[in-house]
Design goal:
The chain is an alpha/beta fold. It has 2 domains: 4-196 and 364-381, 3-Layer(aba) Sandwich (Rossmann fold); 210-354, Glycogen Phosphorylase B (Rossmann fold, 3-Layer(aba) Sandwich). 38% of the residues lie in helices and 18% in strands. It has helices at residues 16-30, 80-97, 115-128, 147-160, 183-186, 221-234, 250-259, 273-279, 289-298, 314-324, 341-354, 366-381; strands at residues 4-9, 34-39, 53-56, 61-63, 66-71, 101-105, 133-139, 163-167, 189-191, 210-213, 240-244, 264-268, 282-285, 302-304, 329-330. A 7-stranded parallel sheet has the order 3-2-1-6-7-8-9, with helices on both faces. Strands 12-11-10-13-14-15 form a 6-stranded parallel sheet, sandwiched between helices. The longest helix has 18 residues, at 80-97.
Length: 382
């Protein structure tokens, strides 16, 4: 009998959670699982493709880093009726699919404001299939909350989850760097390696540029503004390219274009980003999960400036690990040594002189290993 897998994700700020969940869905589908991916965040511009089905719940989002207040697509606070509609659709999809494997992306380590959805779907799945395997899927770095919320998450892991898939390389960046791992939790952790899509040979594009990127959300705006100021200071000795995500509004994007000098090109993020990295003289970026994997693959000189607004620590932990490994230079936008255009100019000059970084070996076989782990857990349950 063909095993059935259900992956549920709600991304609120950028698209990283959805990208990871899509990679996992594609890997399971390719391995022969009848897979459904359900997304509750902003609807993607194009439906993810692969050997799986995709379902979109009524979408929700947040403003900035205010994760407490959920909004509908028009920016209004989400009503109880809207929440009930999401739950009904999710529970109906779960009952119809009758999964053998349920994967919740990020929950219960985060998304606690959606606990009624995630815990409810687990209840529906196990009622429809008593032997359903329940897994949590998390990235390499978590945001550490208050002690009571750590206990809450670990209690939910103990009560409802069979294992936790950690999509990272323990030798490079163990989960303990960002989350206190108690012995009970440690027994359920399964490191998969970093989770990527199918790797294609990136053809270098526009060689010699300085490429500045900031993920899919508007969180990169401060970095882009600083990059434009720095490029203006440095003059036209080198071409710069700034890639703004779709989360940046039209007015903010137009303002970046207006401020940019002639040797700085401002454009929307591109699907051939790996090719731009492969040929660039230097990458300046944030330190999101998928960006780091692209940097490792490209092996080009890199400066990482982690997003650290509000209480966000995820990218800082990862960026510091990159610097320790010699993969990139880490600079900060906030704090006592906050970055200025003068400081960025000095860093850019130094990195261009230093040249390419030495190759770094980290485990990027997350797709294949995740499938193998899930298959083994299913076999042990049979």
């Amino acid at each position: 009998m063909t095993p059935r897998a259900l992956i549920v994700v709600t991304h609120l700020l950028g698209s990283g959670h959805l990208v990871r969940a899509t990679h996992l869905a594609r890997a399971l589908g390719t391995a022969g699982f009848e897979t459904m991916l359900v997304s509750g965040g902003a609807a993607p511009r194009s439906v993810p493709d692969g050997s799986f089905t995709f379902a979109q719940l009524p979408p929700i989002k947040v403003e900035g880093v205010d994760f407490r207040n959920l909004l509908d697509p028009e920016g209004r606070p989400v009503s109880q009726d809207y929440r009930a509609l999401r739950r009904k659709m999710l529970f109906d999809l779960t009952a119809q699919h009758r999964p053998d494997v349920v994967v919740t992306e990020h929950f219960p380590f985060g998304r606690r404001q959606l606990a009624d959805e995630f815990l409810g779907l687990i209840g529906v799945a196990t009622a429809a299939n008593l032997r359903a395997l329940v897994l949590s899927s998390v990235r390499d770095v978590l945001v550490t909350p208050r002690a009571d919320r750590i206990r809450e998450a670990e209690d939910r892991i103990a009560a409802h989850f069979d294992a936790v898939l950690v999509h990272g390389d323990r030798a490079f960046l163990p989960l303990e760097r960002s989350w206190p791992v108690a012995p009970e939790l440690a027994r359920k952790l399964r490191y998969t390696g970093y989770l990527t899509g199918p790797e294609e040979c990136a053809t270098p594009l526009e060689p010699g540029e300085i490429v500045v990127s900031g993920g899919g959300s508007a969180a990169g705006l401060p970095l882009f503004e600083l990059a434009i100021a720095t490029a203006t200071r440095m003059g036209n000795r080198r071409r710069w390219r700034i890639l703004g995500g779709q989360g940046i509004g039209a007015a903010e994007f137009a303002e970046l274009e207006r401020k940019a000098p002639a040797h700085v090109r401002v454009e929307r993020a591109r699907p051939d980003f790996p090719g731009l990295l492969a040929g660039c003289a230097l990458s300046i970026s944030q330190a999101g999960y998928n960006t780091v994997l692209d940097l490792v693959r490209a092996g080009r000189p890199a400066i990482v400036v982690p997003f650290d607004a509000g209480n966000e620590t995820e990218q800082t932990v990862r960026a510091e690990a990159m610097e320790r490994a010699g993969l990139a230079r880490c600079l900060r936008l906030s704090g006592p040594d906050s970055l200025t255009s003068i400081g960025l100019e000095e860093a850019v000059t130094d990195m261009l002189v230093a040249g390419a970084t030495p190759p770094l070996t980290i485990d990027r076989a997350g797709a294949e290993t995740s499938v193998a782990i899930i298959a083994k857990l299913l076999a042990e349950r049979a």
